[in-house]
Design brief:
Length: 400
């Protein structure tokens, strides 16, 4: 080890620049990999959630949401379809300006109706960091996702007033105050950025956002924006969605497989793009290692000849240069991962709590980054090491 360090410190600037090339590549791989890890965690949670039920909306909707409403009587019609285990009416509205009225990954804060019984059917079982589920028949209660609780600095027993009033709100903008009865554990997907109230409270929130003329003529207690439909054990949900579309008029059931396929395809493309950018930086670093080791061989021709003349084997010479190049990769990998981890930590610390995490550094990512740097250094040193080990000792000693 001492000899390896001594050889690298012979040309301090060159060794520094070579290691820096590896460091830059590993920093890129760490940050991009952490970004992809977090994105894929969101996708995995979303895919697990959407694969477990059939979302039903208005016939003109995409099966998840629309501006239209459906009468609650449709729930009984859907429940009568063979293979349906349970139907839950749903309503989702904005929680603050700029939010979207759709439950999706990376969504800004939203308020959704919540029935504790649905959690036993859902594939994405939410658990409580504190408090309890709300009483589905009681008004004025709310359960907060982890990011929302952090953003508004609320704990169980506190009150919270929603929706957030925009700066340009109309004089008639309505808000409601709720008592926080529960805060969910982090799920790394949509529930983190949501707040959940009873169906009756969600119906009132939906009605508040309608034009005044419609508010006075619509009994919102008889409507929902859509339904979450769960199948009996062994029921194919894609087949069930087709059955619902065929037997219940005025609704559209989306196939879970299509929703999941869309999520997975988006995640694969994102991962490919981020990792390709990082690997490009690493290839450049690898070329720097090759250049450094070739120059090291050229500068140490007489040294190599002397070692071979006093008995050093071809394998020993090759091992010496491979260890040097591997050491460059290892040092660059460790420093690069450390800097990458520091960068992701700093960015997370400066982000608003409502946005949630965008990086996820895992032990697997650490092993990948450092292991890849080590392998890169080793592979980059093969050609120079082979060249050094094949030198003729007589010719090497004669060289100037």
């Amino acid at each position: 080890m001492n000899e390896i360090v001594r050889n690298l410190t012979r040309r301090k600037l060159r060794s520094f620049l070579t290691i820096s090339g590896i460091v830059i590549g590993i920093v890129a791989l760490t940050t991009m990999g952490a970004l992809a890890n977090n994105f894929n965690a969101l996708l995995d949670g979303g895919a697990k959630y959407y694969a477990g039920y059939v979302p039903v909306g208005d016939a003109n909707s995409n099966g998840i949401t629309s501006g239209a409403v459906l009468p609650l009587t449709k729930a009984a019609e859907i429940q009568a379809v063979p293979g349906v285990a349970r139907v839950f009416p749903t309503i989702t509205v904005q929680a603050k300006p700029g939010s979207l009225q759709v439950v999706s990954l990376g969504l800004p804060d939203y308020i959704s109706s919540y029935d504790p019984a649905e959690n036993s059917y859902s594939a994405l079982h939410t658990t409580f960091a504190s408090g309890r589920p709300l009483d589905a028949t009681a008004g004025g209660q709310i359960v907060l996702g982890s990011s929302v609780a952090t953003e508004f600095n609320r704990k169980v027993g506190d009150s919270i007033t929603l929706p957030v009033k925009p700066s340009d709100a109309n004089p008639g903008f309505l808000q409601h105050t709720y008592i926080v009865v529960g805060i969910l554990n982090k799920t790394l997907t949509a529930p983190d950025t949501g707040a959940f109230v009873s169906l009756a409270d969600a119906q009132q929130l939906f009605k508040d956002q309608l034009p005044v003329a419609l508010q006075s003529n619509l009994d919102m207690t008889q409507y929902a924006a859509g339904f979450d439909v769960y199948g009996t054990p062994g029921t194919n949900l894609d087949t069930l969605s087709d059955r619902i579309n065929a037997q219940v008029s005025g609704v559209k059931a989306a196939k879970p497989s299509k929703l999941v396929a869309t999520l997975v395809a988006g995640g694969a493309l994102f991962t490919e793009i981020t990792m390709a950018a990082a690997l490009l930086a690493l290839v450049i670093g690898g070329l720097a290692v090759i250049n450094t080791m070739i120059m090291a061989v050229s500068e140490r021709v007489r040294e190599i000849g002397l070692k071979k003349a006093i008995g050093a084997t071809t394998r020993a010479i090759m091992r010496e240069f491979l260890l040097e190049s591997s050491f460059i990769g290892l040092v660059g990998g460790v420093i690069g991962f450390g800097l990458g981890f520091a960068v992701t930590t700093l960015i997370k610390a400066t982000m608003p709590a409502s946005q949630g995490a965008i990086f996820l550094v895992t032990p697997g990512l650490a092993a990948l980054c450092i292991g890849f740097a080590l392998a890169l250094g080793t592979v980059a040193g093969i050609i120079p090491a082979y060249r050094a080990s094949r030198m003729d000792p007589v010719a090497a000693l004669r060289s100037n």
